[in-house]
Amino acid sequence: MSPRSTGIAVAAAIIVVVVLIVLMVGFWSGLGDSGMDAAGWFALVFGVLATLALGIGLMALVFISNRRGYDDRSHH
After folding, report:
1. Per-residue DSSP letters for the chain?
2. Hey, where are the domains in the chain?
3. Residue 32 in contact with residue 24, Cβ under 8 Å?
4. What is the greatest pairwise CA distance in the chain?
5. pLDDT in tens, the chain (76 residues)
6. Who's near 34: CB < 8 A, 6+ residues apart?
7. What does the alpha-carbon distance between residue 76 and residue 74 come to, in Å, rounded to a whole number?
8. Under a CB-based contact definition with an 8 Å cutoff, are residues 28 and 34 in contact?
């Protein structure tokens, strides 16, 4: 995969995430009595970002471990 293709894929993924966040905020705001104050929004955004960071970090470790052969050495 070329660097240009990777950049396009990352840009498309970011656009999709932003659109989904905008839609989620719009639908959530339209529910009526489910308003959140600034602390609630901060907690929601922080929780989502922390979960994404943890997932991305762990998957990166899995790929790095696989490419460097750490898993292969532990089975022998």
Report:
1. --HHHHHHHHHHHHHHHHHHHHHHHHHHHTTSS----HHHHHHHHHHHHHHHHHHHHHHHHHHHHHHHTHHHHHT-
2. 1-34, 36-76
3. no
4. 60
5. 678 889 999 999 999 999 999 999 888 777 777 677 889 889 999 999 999 999 999 999 999 988 888 777 665 5
6. 28
7. 6
8. yes
